[in-house]
Amino acid sequence: MTATDRAVELTRVAAAAADEKLATEIIAFDVSEQLFITDVFLLCSAANQPQARAIKDAVEEKLLEQGAKPVRREGDREGRWILLDFTDVVVHVQHTEERAFYALERLWSDCPTIDLELA
């Protein structure tokens, strides 16, 4: 089983929105064979809390335009690790320090990555 076309499409829209807000280290993993709760984890980094919130806002706005609403949102107040759950796609916006400490890439490194088609 692989991520659905809809999940990949939403992932690319979310990645583009994050990229527009200058997110770094943007990567997506197809976790559909490992988890039953979602198809894709999208990870990106922000240099500071205001940038993390701006990335979150941009991702939400663009995915709402695609008809996807977040079913869960965590970490918005602190802005160090914001999680947006759109069911098919879970977006992690992490402060660079949290990204280095938790190293989610290592955890999901056995999962295939998704071509985000970013310039």
UniProtKB/TrEMBL annotation:
Q: Which GO terms describe its molecular function?
A: ribosomal large subunit binding
State if Cytoplasm is listed as a keyword: yes
Sorted keywords for this record are: Cytoplasm, Repressor, Translation regulation
Keyword Ion transport part of the UniProt annotation: no
By its UniProt entry, which InterPro entries does this protein fall under? Iojap/RsfS/C7orf30, NT_sf
GO:BP terms for this protein?
Answer: cytosolic ribosome assembly; negative regulation of ribosome biogenesis; negative regulation of translation
**What broad class describes the main subcellular location of this protein?**
cytoplasm
Mind telling me which GO cellular component terms the entry cites?
A: cytoplasm
Subcellular location(s) per record: Cytoplasm
Q: What are the transmembrane regions? A: none
Q: What does this protein do?
A: Functions as a ribosomal silencing factor. Interacts with ribosomal protein uL14 (rplN), blocking formation of intersubunit bridge B8. Prevents association of the 30S and 50S ribosomal subunits and the formation of functional ribosomes, thus repressing translation.
Q: Which NCBIfam families match?
A: rsfS_iojap_ybeB
Q: Give the protein family.
A: Belongs to the Iojap/RsfS family.
Subunit description: Interacts with ribosomal protein uL14 (rplN).
What is the designated name of this protein? Ribosomal silencing factor RsfS
Q: What is the lineage of its organism?
A: Bacteria, Bacillati, Actinomycetota, Actinomycetes, Propionibacteriales
Q: What's the gene?
A: rsfS
